[in-house]
Each structure stands twice: as structure tokens, then as C-alpha cells.
Amino acid sequence: MSSIRNVAIIAHVDHGKTTLVDKIIYATQSQEKQTEGGELILDNNDLERERGITILAKNVSVRYKDTKINIIDTPGHADFGGEVERVLKMADGVLLLVDAFEGAMPQTRFVLGKALGLGLKPIVVVNKVDKPNCRPDEVQEQIFDLMFNLEANEEQLDFVTIYGSSKQGWMSTDWTKPTEDIFPLLDEILKTIPEAPGPEGPVQMQITNLDFSSFVGRIAIGRVYRGELNEGQQVGISREDGKIDKVRIKELHIFTGLGKEKVKQVKAGDICAVVGLDGFDIGDTIVDLENPEPLPRISIDEPTMNMLFTINNSPFFGQEGKFVTSRHLRDRLYKETEKNLALRIENTNSEDKFLVYGRGVLHLSVLIETMRREGYELQVGQPQVLIKEIDGQKHEPIEHLTIDLPEEYAGKIIEITTQRKGELLVMESRGDLQHLEFEIPSRGIIGLRNNVLTLSAGEAIMNHRFKEYQPWKGNLPGRNNGSLISMEAGPCTAYTLDKLQDRGVFFIDPGDVVYEGQVIGQHTRENDIVVNVQKGKKLTNMRAAGSDDNSKIAPAKKFSLEEAMEYIQKDEYLEITPKTIRMRKIFLKEHERKKAMASM
User: Fold this and answer.
1) For 408, phi and psi rounded to 5 degrees?
2) What sign has the CA pseudo-torsion 427, 429, 432, 433?
3) H-run or E-run covering 521
4) pLDDT tens-digit profile of 316-343?
5) 102: which DSSP letter?
6) Measured between alpha carbons, how far is 432 from 135 in angstroms, rounded to an integer?
């Protein structure tokens, strides 16, 4: 029986974690039977590749010097913090991967704090030392200070640092002396990370993750802490209410390379997938029927935001999507809750509307984007922050926000953030960048990213994570501009767009077909106005000099999904189909909107 090491990788978005894991898999040659080369093996979901972020925690294992190393990938984005804690429960040590130029980032701090709290032993990997302007030694000191501030114990503070470039495929204990391969890092893992203990006794395995297969249903993933699991064995599942149900294990799988391998038995210390358990939840423990000893439950981060999801009932419904009915929408949302744990769904008093609760705009937008790629059509309302009543007082979620940007833009950014009730806590120079930290209500972050990027010419890096609930901070300024709304249905003409340009910025191009009540632009003032963009030019048989100048039309403003979610107002919906994203008023007819306004 070879020994096992369970290592979680913590890294900030885009610090090279996925590339490093790819290189480890290549180096240990476990990919011969798995893949034919290719990049970013771990981020195998299209969305993860496009956005360059890891959303779902995954498991990979490699064999090195007769030791099995289970590498557990953790999400780097705080919106997926619910995933992080559960994943760390499976590890005995962590690799903290940081960029040699950027150093430790706020979200790394969030995950690292959790890992140190669980007593895990860290190895620091300073990556991208091949980049110009990198400062590996300063970054290493910065990490030491960070761990000290996070109250790491003496043993954790005595960490080993490995330097290298996962892109070029080398690691070394001294960044000025590159090596040929990545093995120095693997040797260090064998040396520093404790071997996974395999105590004998009644079985204990906590379910910390799950997978879903259309053939066998939900699959429980977790680490066997004690004893062993056998195929066909009868075990108990200890639930949240303390009840223990009897179940039989149909199949056991362990992770090898990038895939899974079916086995008859799994011993303590290894991570496995169990098929055949019905109706389990994350945090349940698989226990021995004779003397059950459940492990303490894992708490999952609370959602901080909700959005109304409803079927697409615009005049264009069903033109592009395959799944358009409320039954399709309901089934898909409930299926998502089986693996997306920070997501909650509530039925409303209407059959075709659902309230979906999530961790933030990114968390919800990833779900919406996945659904539209699968062929769903739906509409969503403006994201709303969850308010709690604590001791009779209204409380709202507060986030810790950090922005790194060139110094000349700092003044403007501080101004717009404080307008949204952000409180500046830290302001310091880091090289040629200014580092700002704020405490800000979650409401204030909705729509902030757009403004920050516009004001900083796209150079700002912005991150935020949930901190706590605090008393309500008062009203925030909303969007200053009203909407331009289409008066009629049909294709818009270049002639009318040209004539209406002084009214605002348009989101449509000449020839686009629009419907009555669709939001087609942003008004220069704060009120909404209805415009007719379908009028053609009056044709005469006299050719007048100067009247035939070509129309010069500014290009339409295009939104990404998140930008559109953050842009819409309370009385607007976002219509989402596999090919298009449109904004519309909830009430399409003008007289209905006036009636709704009067009744408010």
C-alpha cells in the first residue's frame, strides 16, 4: 500500500494554478491514457476557460515515487467561497500559489485564513518569476507577514518557498537558478505535507462534494477519515437532524489522473466517489451501522443576493431557444441546486416565476450563461441584496473591496466608491500601483465594476468578498440616466437612429428588429422616453442639394451579461436567449407602465 498525500491548491484568479496542475500531470506522465495533450485540462467547462476562473472544485491525482498525490483544486473567486471550506476539509496541506509580481491578493487571503484555521501545513509557490518587473523576494516576505496577521502557528510560519514558472514548466528553491523540470516541487510535497493518516476502526467519511450523472444520479465525494469502505457494504448516513438512514454502497471510485477508476475497497486517507446513496446532503457523514460516530457538520456560506427568474414572455419568445416553458425552467433550476450548494430556489405565488438566491452577481451570471448555452430562454429581474432583521434593526451584507489601479485614477475611484457608502480603510502604494481597500455594502458593488473600469481606462483590478451583516447604511444613488424605449415593433432604420442621436446612446444597430417596450438605448437625462426608430425617410422625386448626406451613426453600446444585469432598473427585465441579450420594460405598453407608476 503506497502512501497518500492530499494537497489543496490555493491561488488567486489568474495566478497560474490550472497551468501548474497541467504541468504536474504531464510531468508524472499520468496523461498517457487520458488526454492527447491540450491546455488547461482542469478548467474543462467552456465558461471556466473563457473567463479564466475556476468555478467548481475538482479532484486530480498523480503518482510520484510510489506515492499517490491527490491534488484538490479550490475556486479562487469569493463568490464561490461555499466550495472552498468543504474542499479544504479533504486536505492535509496546502500549496499557496502567488504571482511573483502581484503578490498575495485579497481572495487568497480569504482561503488561506480558512486553511490556516484548519491547521493545514502550507508550501508557498511563487509563480511567474519569468515575468519582467517581478519581485519574488518581496512577495515572499509579504506572504510571511500575511500568515503572521492571519495568526498562523510557529510550524506554519516556518514554511518552505519554491520559485518557478509553471508556464515554462520548472520549479526551484532559488529563483535565480532555474531547473529543467517541476520535480523539486513534488519532492517538497512528499517531504513537507504529512502523509494522510489511515486510522483503523468504524468507518467515517464526510461528504464534502458531489457529482451528478444522468445514469446513476447523485454521487457523493469525500475523504475516508477512518476505517474502510467496501463495494456492496451496508452503512449509515448521518443527517443534519441526527437521524441515521441505512444505505448500501453500489460502487466505489477513486481518482486517478483526470479520471476515475472503479475499485472494490477504499482505505482511510484516500478521496473517493460513492455511488448508490440516495437523498444525501453535503456535510452528511457515512458511518458504521453498529457504532455510528458522525463528524461535525460543515457550514455553507449564506447567499447575499437574489434575482427573479421567469419565463421569456416577450414578443420574440421561442425564436432561438429550445427550452422555453416554466416546467423547463423549474426543472433546470432545481437540478442546479443538486450540485451548486450556495444556490437556493424559492417558488413565488406565480407558477412561472422563481426567486433564485446566490452569492453575488458573478455566481448568478455563471448559472444564467450556462443555461443560455444549453438552449434555455428566460428573463431575469434586477439583482436584489438580502436584508436581515437583527434585534429589530435592518441589516445588510457588507463586503471587503480592494481595488489596485494606476495612481492618477485613484481620486476619481475613491469618490465614486464613497458615494456608494464605501468607507476607505487602506490606501498605499505598491510599485507603480495604488492599492485601495474599502468596506462597502453589497448593494454598492452592483454596477460599480463598470464605472471603475471606465474611469481607470480599463486598468483597475477589483475584488471583493463578503465580510458580515451590518446595520443598513441608507439609500444609494441609482443610475442617473433614463432609458430610451421603442414605441413600435419592426426593424429600425439608419435614418431615424441618425436623427435621434442627440437623445442618448443606442444599444441597437440599423436593421435590428425590436419590439414595443424594448429598452434600446440610454437617455441623456434621467427620465425614460419612448422613441420611434422605425420611421423611414420621406421620399420625394426632387433631389434637394444637401439632403442626401449619408447618416453617420455612432456604434451601438454592447453589454456583457454581467454588465447588463448590473445596468437594468427595478422596472426592467433582462431577456436572455441562446443568441441575444435584450433589455425590456416589465410592462411593454406605455399606458400599462403609467398605470403601474401611478399605483406605486
Assistant:
1) -65, -15
2) negative
3) strand 518-523
4) 888 888 888 889 889 888 888 776 767 8
5) T
6) 13
